[in-house]
Amino acid sequence: MFEHKITPYQNLSILILVSFAFQSILMPLLLTEIDGPVGWMTIIIAGLVLYFALKPINKMMLKYKDNSVLSITNNIFPKFLSKLAGIYYIVMFLTANSILMKDFAEQIKLMMLFRTPLGTIIILILLTASYATKKGIKTIANIASIAVLIAFIPYLLIIIFSTYYADYSNVFPIYPFDVTGVFKSVPGSILGFFGFSILLFSNSKVTVQENNRLINRKFIIISSILYIACYLLIIVKFGIKESVHLVWPFISVMKFVNIPGFFFESTEIVGLCFQIVVTFSCICIIAYFTNMAMQETFKTRENGYFIFIQIPVLYIMAVVLPGMYMMFPYIQWPIIVFSSLNLLIPLIAALIDRTKQKMP
Amino acid sequence: MKNIKIIIITILTSIFLTACWDSVEINKREYIFAVGIDKNDKNLTFTAEIPKINEGSEEQRLVYTKDSANFADFYATSYLHSEKAISDRLMQVIVLGEDLARDAETVKRIFDEIQRSPQMNRRVKICIAKGKAQDIINTEIPSNPIVGRFLSEMLIKLKRENYQDVYTFDEAILNLGKTGNTMVPVVEANEKSLKIERAGVFKEYELKGFLEPDEVAAVMVVLNPDKAKIRNVNIMVEGTNVSLGVVDIIMTTDMNISGDKLTVDYYATLNSYIDSFIIGSNKLEDQSYLNKIKEEAIKSILTVSESTLDKLQQVYKTDLLKIKEDLFKYHKQDYEKISDKYDEIFEAADINIHLDMVIKSTGLVK
């Protein structure tokens, strides 16, 4: 009922916003896994891997216009495998959204709502996000494009004002660098480009799908630049030794915001307000694409009502799961599995499709 | 129908937009501007300065002193002892007493609490009291009665003009984290006011001792030659007192590790001008006389620099010159070979300062 198409710019906004949220969450992992301030190398490697992976995927998606990756796998994979892929995306989106929500709720509790129970914050976010999600892709896309203008860009500008007395020599030493650490943290960095998983679904909703390849490339380039800039910002502000101790590096960076001529009692709250809009948009976006994954896995005509199934699942997962920072020691393998599958499922689909095409 | 909708929306909006139910107005708050922390036999003594911002006078203040185990305990006790809500969000300065600063464990506890707190700002200024922090907070300064404001403005000025390396808690903890060493400004009583001239030398969160103003200036030149300020150099040449001002410094550094021997050479060129000489003498037109001035000035600066280096290497055994950090950043391979025994290597290091002086101007008269 609410289904509409989205513009390429809205698609780009969705991809960048979602990636930024996960890059922020996974930043401590990048900082701790590498011995030295060379995490930007990992980001470049991850960006390149995704950039080159996009070519066959875009080609396949352009061939099956108006189809998401799950619709395509339904056509080219055996039924069992396509169902398995669908369930994987549902589980992955639900896990990612619940982690995002938990982390976000913990930040709000720690910085703003000291006495409000965490469960209350989570349910409030969830109910509000559900309302937006139920409205469909057009509403979500509008929220995302507005969020970029009114929250994401001001948020980045505010972060720039936190570079007073930053020590730019903290980006050294570059050589000799920790080769093992750099390569070990590539899966985590790939997962940070969460928009890559979203574009497999969102591309099918774009009005001019011929432009998807260009938009997706732009997304990888812009997202990589933002990821590297944010990583370097934390490094120059705190140095690598202090950065590894930070639970939420961005919150700590925001404590240094100093806008000449402005007085704020708590500078970090100003940044957090923008972050609330950004993260809230991301929760809506992921919830919508979970609905879409459910629709295509269970082959239903509508997807809006799946949000009613998501609400209790997301709530329980968000309440039960520990905060992201507490999970870091245990998520090495899950990250490798998730990032490999995110990359391999569409690539294998593209490969099978190409093989089938060549067969007489 | 439309009017009814508008009325309902207006009523609902006015009900829900009544702001936070548990908000505390500014006149019901007490904002701590400065906290002095001293060590006593059993506990810590917190002395807090609270300006009376609500009573129409910017120049009046309250000073509370309480024994508490930590900041959290201090706030909890203060909350029960005042009709107002106490807030540390506008805290300007933390002053650590000398006894406390010499106890590494207590400093670590306090630093950890500041670092961990979502409310306290890492940019809060920090200094060490010569003697008790309580005395510093209690000082009555006629020209600027709010000590927190006085110290905050003073520390900002000293940092801006490069008289001190560190002025915020953030800088201190970052330095201690990176190299284990830092120097923190020392505040002391100065008749009916306060002064910050010296710096406290910290190693592994423990105050090892103090640097005199000349020594602080020498360290600042090595740390930041582009911006560092050198006080006027006053020398006696052929019976005449000459004062030189250093306008800028050009410096290069050469570091070398050979086995366990660390050699650091600082090559500095000081561009200076004559600040003061004597009327009636034309000696400044004589190049040989200018050369003598240079020699004396270099000798005078080197004496202070070498004694400072000796103090850092032999007495405090503390690398305030950030040689360790530079080795890690720019000579990582060499640094990794000696990182385990860096303290001994620094102590035995051959650190040399090679000075050259150029007198750029004799001022407005010959």
Category from helices, strands and their pairing of chain A: mainly alpha
The CATH topology of chain A is given as: Amino acid/polyamine transporter I
Oligomer: heterodimer
**How much strand of chain B?**
25-35%
Radius of gyration of chain B over alpha carbons? 26 Å
pLDDT averaged residue by residue of chain A: 90
Global structural class of chain B: alpha/beta
Summarize the structure.
Chain A has helices spanning 8-33, 39-63, 69-76, 79-111, 118-134, 137-160, 179-184, 186-192, 195-202, 212-243, 249-254, 267-298, 306-320, 324-327, 332-358. By secondary structure, chain A is mostly helical.
Essential attributes:
heterodimer, A: 360 residues, mainly alpha, Amino acid/polyamine transporter I, 15 helices, B: 366 residues, alpha/beta, 8-stranded mixed β-sheet, 4-stranded mixed β-sheet, 12 helices, 14 strands
What does this structure look like?
- The mean pLDDT of chain A is 90.
- Chain A has helices at residues 8-33, 39-63, 69-76, 79-111, 118-134, 137-160, 179-184, 186-192, 195-202, 212-243, 249-254, 267-298, 306-320, 324-327, 332-358.
- Chain A has 360 residues and is mostly helical.
- Chain B is α/β, with parallel strands linked by helices and 366 residues long.
- In chain B, 37% of the residues lie in helices and 32% in strands.
- Chain B contains 12 helices and 14 strands.
- In chain B, the strands form 3 sheets. In chain B, strands 4-3-2-6-7-8-9-10 form an 8-stranded mixed β-sheet, sandwiched between helices. In chain B, strands 11-12-13-14 form a 4-stranded mixed β-sheet, covered by helices on one side.
- In chain B, strand 11 and strand 12 form a beta hairpin.
- In chain B, helix 8 (213-223) crosses helix 9.
- The mean pLDDT of chain B is 89.
- Chain A binds chain B through residues 36, 110-111, 115, 165, 167, 169-170, 172-173, 175-176, 238-239, 241-242, 251-252, 255-256, 258, 265-268, and chain B through 22, 89-90, 118-119, 121-123, 168, 170-171, 173-174, 177-178, 328-330, 332-333.
